[in-house]
Design brief:
alpha/beta, Rossmann fold, nine-stranded mixed sheet, 7 helices
Length: 224
C-alpha cells in the first residue's frame, strides 16, 4: 500500500473511515494514559480526525503525522485554525497553537526535531495498514517514544473475506503478537458494534467487534 493509494482516496473523497463525532472510546479511556495538561500526544496517520480537536480542548498538545496534503489542509480549514507552514527536507510542518501536523510519510519522516511524545492515540492507524506493514509500523512507533509511554489503541475485527480493507480486521492475538516484544498489552474494552455501524452492515459484514487496548512501552528500541 503505497502513498499514492491514500492520495487517491482523499482526492476522490473516499474517506468513510473519517468520523464526524469524537470517538467514544477515546473519551472513555483517555485517562488511562495518565498524562497531564500540556502533555504531547502523538496521533499517527491522523487524517483530519476531529479527535485532535477534543484532545486540544482538554489542554493537551497534539502532534499528528499524515501523508495526504488534502487531509491536512481540510483539517485546518474546517476548524478555522490559524497556522503557519514550514518546509522541511522530507515534509511540510503545519503548526497551530499547541498543534503540529507533519505532512509526510510516517515510516521515513525525520521527527528528531519534534517535541517529546508523552502518549500515543491510535484509532485509525493500525487498522489502516495491511498485515505486511503492521510489524514495521510497531517498530517505527516503538523507536519514536521513550520507555513507559502509554498508547490508547482502538481496533476492529470482522471476517476479512467479507470486506476489503482498509479499515482492516486486526484480531486481538495479532495485537499481542506484534506489540508484545516492546509493549505490554491490556485489553480495556470489547463490544459487538455492528448494529451501531450501518455502513459496515451495508457492506455485508456478519459481525464486527471493536476493542480498546492500553499499551505501555517497556523496553529500549533501536533508532528510527
Amino acid at each position: 500500500m503505497d502513498p499514492e493509494f491514500w492520495h487517491e482516496r482523499w482526492s476522490r473523497g473516499e474517506i468513510g473511515f473519517h468520523q464526524h463525532d469524537y470517538n467514544a472510546h477515546m473519551q472513555s479511556f483517555v485517562e488511562t494514559l495518565r498524562i497531564k495538561r500540556g502533555a504531547n500526544v502523538l496521533v499517527p496517520l491522523c487524517g483530519k480526525s476531529r479527535d485532535m480537536i477534543w484532545l486540544l480542548e482538554r489542554g493537551y498538545r497534539v502532534t499528528g503525522v499524515e501523508i495526504s496534503p488534502r487531509a491536512v489542509r481540510d483539517f485546518f480549514e474546517e476548524h478555522s485554525i490559524a497556522h503557519g507552514v514550514t518546509e522541511l527536507p522530507d515534509a511540510r510542518l503545519f503548526r497551530g497553537k499547541h498543534l503540529d501536523i507533519y505532512c509526510g510519510d510516517f515510516f521515513t519522516l525525520d521527527l528528531t526535531g519534534a517535541a517529546r511524545f508523552d502518549a500515543v492515540y491510535d484509532r485509525a492507524s493500525l487498522v489502516a495498514l495491511p498485515p505486511q506493514m503492521r510489524e514495521r509500523y510497531v517498530e517505527r512507533l516503538t523507536a519514536l517514544v521513550p520507555e513507559d509511554t502509554r498508547s490508547l489503541l482502538v481496533t476492529m475485527q470482522y471476517p476479512q473475506d467479507e470486506m476489503r480493507g482498509p479499515p482492516f480486521s486486526v484480531p486481538e492475538e495479532e495485537v499481542r503478537k506484534i506489540f508484545g516484544g516492546f509493549w505490554t498489552v491490556d485489553r480495556l474494552h470489547e463490544e459487538d458494534c455492528l448494529e451501531q455501524q450501518p455502513r459496515f452492515r451495508e457492506k455485508g459484514l456478519s459481525r464486527l467487534t471493536e476493542r480498546v487496548f492500553l499499551l505501555r512501552r517497556t523496553k529500549p528500541a533501536g533508532r528510527a
